[in-house]
Design a protein that fits this description.
mainly beta, three-stranded antiparallel beta sheet, ten-stranded antiparallel beta barrel
Amino acid sequence: MPRFFAKLSLSLTLCAAAFAECPCDTALDGGFGNLELGGSFLLWKACVDDLDFAAELREDQFDYKDLCAAWDPGYRFWAVKPDLYEGWDIQGSYTYLRSTANKEILSEENNIYPTLFHPALFDALSFRAEGHYVSQYNAWDVLAAYPLDCLDPVFQVSPFFGVAGIYLTQTLNADYEGPVVGGALATYRTYWDSALWGAGLKTGIDCVLQAGPKSYFFGNASALLLGCEARRGRNLQTIATGPGLVQVRFDDGDRCLIVPGYQIAVGASLDASFCNVVMGLHLGFEMTRYYNVPNARRFMGDQLTTQAALSTSSNVRTFGFQGIVAGGDILF
């Protein structure tokens, strides 16, 4: 059976589609089409809005300090069943990545201002500030792809649509240390967490350009729209001064969010056949973005009576990744 063997794992939609009557080059025709299994190693950097945790005053200038995510490893697995019914391919994938960001700043002067702590609870400037951010990203999709007729002997296109889902957890915390009246040392801690889950629709297109007998360039683009539930989030504000401890908690209730997003991927792949089995390697770059993802509130009131709950009106952010994807697959 002719096959459409696309190394498009980079956007959760790697496709190996079957062509029934397509006069493509035989390099694309391995005579297989039963099942494709694959996996990818991810080296991604999270791109997240509003990760400043402190500002340092130098003369008359404030220098904001942001948490910058590290390049973290992740993985993706997928399976494709070519030509399941009337030329339609069915494919599914799962992606996981844990991203972290950490930073500490020290000053010989008490000139560090917190940006995450409630101003009504903070009564002294700091000489030390430390911030931490962690996200755990789980994404899945189940898609149907239909290979189109060949536009050129070396170019193949396959539009797809289906369902996709996400489960995303985030934590953001910061510690501040500084002296208070009387010379005692105070520690201010803030901790925020959230969980987002949901599912919706996804659609896009895969393209493969044959560069040689067993080598290809590929690219894809997809868009999704998810209906999500944001679980009740905690925002703890803690002050520790000697044996004393004061804690104030601000909770966001459960809420419904519409989360749009997109994915773009480009790369190259190689094929090799061995004993009626086709194996492939791929390497590329992928970018993923989600909008309307939960964000920590920034409080503005300077007293804990009528202004205690005043905060920024926008408590959502843009969340995404960019980075390298490398892996392999097998078709048998």
